[in-house]
Amino acid sequence: MVRWAQTSQDAGDLQAAHLLDAGMQELVFEDAQDMIIDQLNSLGTTDALVIPVLEANMRDPGVSPMVVMYLRLLTSAEIARRHEFFAPFILVGP
Fold first, then answer.
1. pLDDT value at position 72?
2. Around Cβ 86, how many Cβ atoms within 10 Å?
3. Selection from 41, 29, 37 nearest residue 68 by Cα
4. Alpha-carbon distance 5 to 41, whole Å?
5. What is the predicted pLDDT for the residue at 46?
6. What is the dihedral of CA 54, 51, 18, 2, to 10 degrees?
7. pLDDT of residue 85
8. Distance between CA atoms of 63 and 38, rounded to whole angstroms?
9. pLDDT of the residue at 36
């Protein structure tokens, strides 16, 4: 459990740094990030996050939109960070 928790926390810290470097405020993403890390950390406990619980969480109106928002923020930050690579795939104007 400790190893998984440390790994997920390290990943969360790395993602937070990535989002902050992209100019996003921590207040915008910290709740969603904490929720996702908690979900991941529950995989390493005796009360493992089983498929029915994961499905219920993804259908929960309080969880699902936050996960989608967080993934959109990560995607936006990555596109901004590697804009030269993604430029050919992004249409600008009509």
1. 92
2. 12
3. 29
4. 6
5. 63
6. 100
7. 93
8. 12
9. 83
Q: What is the dihedral of CA 63, 69, 75, 80, to 10 degrees?
A: -150
Residue carrying the six token digits 């996003």: 24
- What is the radius of gyration, based on Cα positions, of the chain? 16
0.90 exceeded by the pTM? no
Asked if 20 contacts 30 with a C-beta cutoff of 8 angstroms, the reply is no
Residue 4 is predicted with a pLDDT of 44
CA distances to 15, 33, 43, 83 from 11, rounded to whole Å, are: 6, 10, 15, 23
| Cα–Cα distance, 9 to 56 (Å, whole number) | 24
Of 42, 41, 36, nearest in space to 68 by CA: 36
* Mean pLDDT of successive 10-residue stretches along the chain, which has 94 residues: 55 82 86 82 65 79 88 90 89 70
